[in-house]
Records
---
Amino acid sequence: MSKRYILAMDQGTTSSRSVLFDESARIAAVAAEEFEQIYPQPGWVEHDPEAIWNTQLETARRVLREANVRPDEIAAIGVTNQRETTVIWERATGRPIYNAIVWQCRRTTEACERLSAAGLADEVRQRTGLVIDAYFSGTKAVWILDHVPGARARAERGELCFGTIDSWLLYKLTGQHATDVSNASRTLLFNIHGLDWDDVLLGHVGVPRAIMPSVGPSSHVYGTTKVLGADVPVAALCGDQQSALFGQTAFNIGDCKNTYGTGCFLLMNTGANPVESRHGLLTTLAWSVDGKVDYALEGSVFIGGAVIQWLRDELGLIASAEESEALALSVPDSGGVRLVPAFVGLGAPHWDMRARGVITGLTRGANRAHIVRAALESISFQSADVLRCMEADSGQTIRALRVDGGAARNDFLLQHQADVLGIPVLRGRTSESTALGAAFLAGLAVEFWPGRAQLSQLTATERVFEPSWNTNRRESEVNSWHRAVTCARSV
Ligand code: ADP
């Protein structure tokens, strides 16, 4: 067979990456290139869409060179992307009319407050599964239309295209203007039940339907591209967190993953059922494959691995993130010390934006190892709190947790996670679950792989962390954590 590889384009917030996978889902080559973060004002974040495209294309060319693979050996391209980041470009020329407004950008906070004040929160939650927040794409699009001279009139005339980064890359690759359900469900404009743009919300938020892309499945041939030097189908679009869930082969109801990065992103597959959360979690489209849509519950921990950066950069307690593991293991327990890193408030299940960080339980004998250990434990305690909300909302019992992300390299953290949850924690062989998800979705669309059953066989677990605490120990540790959280909420 001449088509021996799938190329995943993983367009992230700080870098564009390309990963080449072979038929056994092994990595043949990886390339990454960073691009500029643009901060026009405090709290504002932009990217240059052309820099996103150029770095993405360059890394794709580089993996082919490095693996010595010809473009006609690529069976398909799968795209996965930083979510919510918004681009508007001219339909006729492909020229962006403004920089991409990045998901982190807070410039539309006031616009969101106006939507909330108009009493739209319940309607938005029911229709989109989201909360009204500047994070999502809708109000970012409005900002561009209202700040670039003439843009709104041109949008009404159908001369402009709106897209999240998947759409932007697809347009550059194939000239098509489309997105997939997983990305569409992060815009505040997509009806997750009707699976189409919601005219009521387009009206409330102020986005003309004429600029919206068509919405397709996550696994689907959207077109072919010649940019690599041969005709290659673009066969998947999927937001990064959902793609990681797919790459973790979390195909069944109740399957969960946690990505431990700067923050933690937790997703649970809820199958055909869009579960409405009573704990402030988001309801989102996981993916659409083979004519079937799966939903997910999503929750996040604001300060995950970032607490370890804080210990390193602000307190100077450790020289490197890796060192945290040996230090935590140098003491038998945290000596009663708890650290709640509520630096920017607390998310699910507390939703207390006034909470602030605390360290509790200090004694004369408390040393830096205890504090470092307590910091690592805070990552797993916070993740466990989110998972308990998911169980309560969905009525599902979580039987295992699949993990990835930079901080998932820390064995102590994962063992503590298993202990706190009382379930096994599974770390995969590949750290590239996000790219792998996009590769899997693309590979299914072009029948490079026959079905999901085979994908599950291709992914190997590198290590299973089994829970070691009895129920009493687990309850007493979790209660002690929650007492510390109470302190953080009364600071
Ligand atoms: P992101 O994609 O959010 O930039 P990564 O997945 O690259 O994050 O993970 C980086 C985060 O993980 C940092 O916050 C860092 O402090 C943390 N981290 C990296 N290695 C370790 C480790 N061995 N132990 C604990 N935390 C770690």
---
Amino acid sequence: MWYGFRVKVLPRTKFGNPILRAKAEKVPLSELKTKYFKNLIERMFYTMKQAHGIGLAAPQISKSIQLFVAQISPTKLRPNLKPLPKTIAINPKIIQQSKEMEEDWEGCLSCPTIRGKVPRHKKITVVYYDEFGEKQTVRLEGLQARLFQHEIDHLNGNVYVDRMKDMKSLMTLSEFEERILKKRKK
Ligand code: ZN
């Protein structure tokens, strides 16, 4: 994707930064049309892609506002991933969640060198506003549901390690790539 010369990678906050532990402020929908906001979204996508992430929440780039961007594309190692088109979620809220939980691996651009197994609700329904201020209601499962739960956690001052049941699954990225990523088929 060509972004032109204007777009620059935003510096990312890392685990330990208090902004990742704060509850983010709601975004006034009147701000969505501003140049500032459009530029912010564009830079967040660019920053996420440069870091090979699938989601990035505003507190991760030092903005304590309720906004995240996300996009899932199938990869060579995971060709069967259900794609998620470019998504901009503003003031998102989980309004329904399945009792059934599912455990799977997660990482975070605020601590990119580790991975851990995190239980999440298998299915969720989320309400959010898109970049045009339109209200969206989506039912999600699998990785998409996991991703939304991870990002919404960021907006509430939580990170995925808070949700881990067993810290023994924590791995460095290189061990994860060697032991898990190469062997998974999903
Ligand atoms: Zn994260």
